[in-house]
Every structure is written in structure tokens, then in C-alpha cells.
Structure to design on (297 residues):
């Protein structure tokens, strides 16, 4: 298949491009800059210029491909409404292009905010509905397109998609530890996260493109529950700094944006995903990645 990948040069996207190419697929990767185009081309993929606001480019990429993997997001923490607007418009454009084709459309989402008080399971629908909701309600928008002849699937990612070179949440935690000279956890450190290695997440995306039934919700979760205190302790060992509790009222000042997430339990199960697609995570776990030096540079 020719697969159109948005966010092709990103953390998860670049691993997904590698996975798809290794499986024999052709990849058309959405890129915004010359450096991203060069990186995507060097892998053996085709660079497709555009961004989430260039709806004509998205329309052309989707029309010219056998499947779409949508991983890009503006992630504008200062203006989330703009991120949500752009996401909604981009997804609507690509779904309209794919309607009636039965082609796969795989969309990324996060686990946060779906349920409270227990791990999220694949049968839990996202409460984000409509253009004014989180991510513009794009998960539900995509899954509803199954009745329009789109083989849509949502992949929900653990808060830590980890590995060497990660620039996500754990990297921000490591940067805070370097800045303050201590590796912190919030309160008693009992909040928990799920995690998945980047290569395992990419393999799940490829399996979703190839085999996921229309309307599937899938969880990129290898480790279901890891205490945030254990993450802080591993970072403390790796960075050779003390480990300490941070008062919740000081979390934003100490950690920055990631403090809100580090104070929030974000866990999920993935049994349905594993059974449905025979997905077996094989990468190192998060603590192994941290202690092996993946976050020391």
C-alpha cells in the first residue's frame, strides 16, 4: 500500500515510517520544512509538502494514497483552541476524501480525559464530541466515518512513548531534574502512567493500517501502570541527582507544562488490542530505557 503519514518526521511518525517501509509499504510523508523533507526522503519515503492548515495538500495526499495515518498535531499549549480547530478541519478534509473508498484511516489520540478512577479500556468511548471539544472531537469524528465507507481506527497512546531520542514528557521531567538538581515526583508519587516503547507503538500503527476493522479503538500500551515516583527514582539514578517529593502547589513552577500531566493518573489496558491484532510489545520498558541512559544527554 501507499500510506500517507502526517507528522512523518515526528517522534512517533518517523518510527512509523520506518516500520511501514520495512513491511514493504510505500510512504508519502507530510513535511513542513526542508530539513523534514530531507529526513523523510533519506529513509526512502516520498516527501509531501504541507501542514495541517493546508487542506488542499491534505486532500491531495489522502486521495493519492491507499491508507492514511494521521499523527500530526499543532500541540499549541498556549492556544489549545487553535490546535483543536486545526485538528478538526484536517480530519474532516481527509475523511471526506476517503469516504466511500473503504481505505484505512488511522488517527492518533491520547488516553487522558476519557475516564476517571480506573484504567481506560478500548470499549470506553471518548467523551470529546464536536468541534469545541478536545482535539476537535477528532477521534469520534473518525470512528463515525466507518458508516461512510472509511476503515477508520483510533490509536490511543500512553502518556510516555519512550525511547532514545524522546522529546516528550519524560524528557521534560529529565530537564526539570537537571535544572533544579533534584528528580521530583508530586506528593506521594502514587499517581501512575502507562507507557509503551516507540518501536512497539509504530508496529501497532502498521498492524492497524493492515488489519484493524472499521471503528476500532486501539491502545498503544505495553506497561499498564507505573508509579510516577518510580519514574522519578529512575531519573534520579540515571542523572545522579537526589529524588524528592514536590508539593502539588509547586508542581507547575518545578516541572512546567508537564507538571499537570505528572500529577494525573493516566493508565489503560490493552488486552483487546493485543488479541485483535496479535500485537506483542517487545521493546524495553520505561525504567529500562531511563536507567540505560536514554534520557541522560
Amino acid at each position: 500500500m501507499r500510506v500517507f503519514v502526517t507528522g512523518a518526521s515526528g517522534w512517533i511518525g518517523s518510527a512509523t515510517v520506518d516500520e511501514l517501509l520495512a513491511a514493504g509499504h510505500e510512504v508519502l510523508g507530510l513535511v513542513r520544512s526542508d530539513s523534514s523533507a530531507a529526513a523523510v526522503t533519506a529513509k526512502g519515503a516520498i516527501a509531501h509538502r504541507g501542514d495541517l492548515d493546508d487542506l488542499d495538500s491534505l486532500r491531495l495526499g489522502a486521495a493519492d494514497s491507499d491508507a492514511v495515518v494521521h499523527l500530526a498535531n499543532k500541540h499549541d499549549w498556549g492556544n489549545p483552541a487553535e490546535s483543536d480547530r486545526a485538528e478538526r478541519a484536517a480530519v474532516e478534509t481527509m475523511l471526506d476524501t476517503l469516504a466511500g473508498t473503504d481505505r484505512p484511516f488511522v488517527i492518533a489520540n491520547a488516553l487522558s480525559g476519557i475516564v476517571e478512577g480506573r484504567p481506560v479500556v478500548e470499549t470506553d468511548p471518548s467523551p470529546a464530541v464536536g468541534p469545541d471539544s478536545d482535539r476537535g472531537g477528532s477521534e469520534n469524528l473518525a470512528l463515525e466515518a466507518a458508516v461512510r465507507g472509511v476503515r477508520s481506527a483510533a490509536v490511543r497512546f500512553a502518556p510516555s512513548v519512550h525511547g532514545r531520542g524522546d522529546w516528550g514528557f519524560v524528557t521534560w521531567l529529565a530537564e526539570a531534574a537537571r535544572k533544579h538538581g533534584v528528580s521530583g515526583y508530586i506528593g506521594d508519587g502514587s499517581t501512575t502512567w502507562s507507557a509503551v516503547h516507540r518501536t512497539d507503538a509504530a508496529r501497532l500503527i502498521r498492524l492497524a493500517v493492515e488489519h484493524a476493522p472499521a471503528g476500532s479503538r486501539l491502545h498503544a500500551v505495553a506497561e499498564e501502570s507505573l508509579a510516577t515516583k518510580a519514574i522519578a527514582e529512575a531519573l534520579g539514578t540515571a542523572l545522579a541527582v537526589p529524588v524528592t517529593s514536590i508539593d502539588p502547589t509547586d508542581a507547575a513552577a518545578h516541572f512546567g507544562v508537564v507538571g499537570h500531566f505528572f500529577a494525573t493518573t493516566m493508565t489503560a489496558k490493552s488486552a483487546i488490542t493485543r488479541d485483535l491484532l496479535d500485537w506483542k510489545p517487545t521493546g524495553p520498558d520505561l525504567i529500562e530505557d531511563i536507567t540505560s541512559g536514554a534520557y541522560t544527554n
